[in-house]
Amino acid sequence: MKGIIAAWLATVTGCGVFDPRDAEFPDGKPTVNNVNLQDILQNGTTERFTNEAYEDIFHPDFEYVSAYDLDTRYGKASMVNHLRLMEANHGSSLRVLWAPDTVRQIPADLNQADTTSLYRVYSVLTEQDTLYGDALFQVVYERVKGSWSILRWKDAPRSPPGIFNPSGR
Fold it and tell me: How far apart are CA 147 and CA 122, in angstroms?
């Protein structure tokens, strides 16, 4: 009888056992969802980022620059924080579509070359509007890790400063 009363008291007083918690990610890092950065490697090959967490997709020496402000550069931490903020602000209405730029794209060999440049055109769909732009990515195959990462991102949004610019909206 005492055991039943103790169990009832623990449940009623809210011991926290059944309290909802935030989702936990397998390795402690959220994965890329609505921004779809994994799609920039699409080039008719099977190459993909090994892990889709922002921390793994961006190279430690990552650099973002806008075509409208070539003097200001942003590093990995700024971009990771900005992308997470974008996803938090727009929720499930945020969708980014990446497509190869067939006009400027030099046929890239993604067969684990050290560094490859990829031109992409993008559409960003939010609850308010649709934004367009062009991007030049420099991706690096890190042989030690056996995976691709983004080293450089030069962004040319059609409406500056652009949604991807950490100083923008």
Answer: 23
Peptide bond into 161 cis (omega under 30): yes
The pLDDT assigned to 16 comes to 46
CA distance 142 to 156: 26
Peptide bond preceding 157 in cis form (omega within 30 of 0)? no
Distance of CA 141 to the CA centre of its chain: 18
The predicted pLDDT at position 155 comes to 95
State the virtual CA torsion across 56, 57, 59, 65 in degrees, nearest 10. -140
Distance CA 52, CA 40 (A): 12
pLDDT less than 50: residues of the chain: 8-9, 12-13, 15-32
Q: How is residue 104 written in tokens? A: 């400027």
- Asked if residue 139 lies in contact with residue 148, where contact means CB atoms within 8 angstroms, the answer is yes
Structure-token pair, residue 30: 């959220």
Adjacent-strand bridge partners of 53:
31
111 alpha carbon, distance to own chain's centre: 23
Q: What is the DSSP letter of 137?
A: E
d(CA 146, CA 62): 18
| pLDDT (0 to 100) of residue 106 | 56
- Rounded CA-CA distance 165/146 in Å is 29
CA atoms of 158 and 151, how far apart (whole Å): 23
